[in-house]
Design a protein that fits this description.
Layout lengths: L3 E7 L6 H9 L6 E7 L6 H12 L4 E7 L5 H9 L6 E4 L5 E2 L3 H11 L6 E4 L1 E4 L5 E4 L6 H8 L7 E4 H4 L12 H11 L4 E4 L5 E4 L17 H14 L6 H21 L3 H15 L3 H15 L5 H8 L2
Parallel strand pairs: 1-2, 1-4, 2-3, 6-10, 7-11
Antiparallel strand pairs: 4-9, 5-11, 6-9, 7-8
């Protein structure tokens, strides 16, 4: 029977993480290895994690609690990987929820694939602070481009073979959008990808005081840009043939970030980000026409802009 290692970083989530751990405990598949990495919390998170271990550690449900001093989720996940012994590895966040059959569905997808696959990607729900759900589509075609546009490989939305994922470390220098950058490097390693069909089986909580992502982009101005800079370096160091196309896609994501800043009432952040994005995108007349229009569209909160950008940046 295949073992799955689930790695969860935790920082000051004493009141939230029990809800997440309950959904892990309710998984129908066994054996599981649950690796909980406290990022040196200042609340009672470590106490909560140790209590969970005392109450639930078993031969078919191994619970490991450890700590990581470097205060980034990336460093905590890398720390967790040092303990992972499962045939497969999942990463998860301390405020999100998994369907009770998520792990089993992942394993079914691995085992039923017509050929050996390295990762399986799941559909996920984005859940706002008042409980409204928006199911995120899975984009299978041109997956690297679609990851840049739609963050296909969110932390909570994939499971990987251990022997594949152990070769790819999280970037400890990135505190925000770390899974965005990590997902790009996974795809640049050219894995064979499978998909978890059917309904969404992960609820990703965003917005509100209890969300890891927080309430605004402006509050963490400059941190999102670090991830995008690393992603440009990832493309530069890759063997992609049409690198300029992916630079353009990343510039579009910077433009989206600028639009979020503008929407949140911070033109002082929006203007330099937009100007930097335009400096890449203004090479073609179509970009010069469409991108300012898309910027205004995103500021107004209209949906579908990424799909339009995908059509423009061919």
């Amino acid at each position: 029977m295949s073992t799955v290692s689930i790695i969860i970083p935790v920082y000051n989530r004493a009141n939230i993480v029990p809800r997440t751990l309950k959904t892990v405990l309710e998984q129908t598949h066994r054996p599981l290895q649950v690796i909980l990495v406290d990022n040196f919390s200042t609340d009672d998170s470590l106490v909560v994690l140790n209590q969970f271990k005392i109450e639930n550690d078993a031969p078919d449900f191994e619970v490991i609690v450890t700590q990581e001093k470097q205060h980034t989720a990336s460093a905590a996940r890398n720390r967790g990987m040092q303990f992972a012994t499962g045939d497969y590895v999942m990463f998860f966040d301390s405020d999100d929820l998994m369907d009770r059959r998520l792990v089993q569905k992942y394993l079914d997808a691995f085992q039923s694939a017509p050929r050996r696959v390295d990762i399986v990607i799941a559909r996920r729900n984005q859940v706002n602070e008042i409980g409204e759900k928006n199911t995120m589509p899975i984009f299978k075609k041109d997956i690297i481009a679609n990851h840049i546009l739609h963050s296909v490989l969110a932390t909570q939305a994939f499971c990987a073979r251990h022997d594949f994922i152990k070769k790819i470390e999280w970037n400890n220098s990135i505190s925000h959008w770390n899974d965005f950058e990590y997902g790009l490097r996974i795809l640049l390693a050219r894995p064979i990808v499978g998909y978890l069909e059917g309904k969404a089986r992960v609820d990703v909580i965003y917005g509100g005081a209890n969300s890891i992502t927080g309430n605004s982009f402006s509050a963490n101005h400059g941190k999102w840009e670090i991830s995008l800079r690393y992603m440009n370096l990832d493309v530069k160091n890759s063997n992609l043939i049409d690198k300029q196309r992916y630079y353009d896609l990343l510039a579009y994501r910077l433009l989206v970030l600028a639009a979020y800043y503008q929407r949140e009432g911070h033109p002082e952040y929006a203007k330099p980000a937009a100007q930097k994005a335009y400096s890449t995108l203004n090479r073609k007349w179509l970009y010069r026409k469409v991108m300012p229009w898309l910027f205004k569209r995103i500021v107004k909160g209209k949906r579908g802009s990424a799909r339009i950008a995908r059509w423009v940046i061919k």
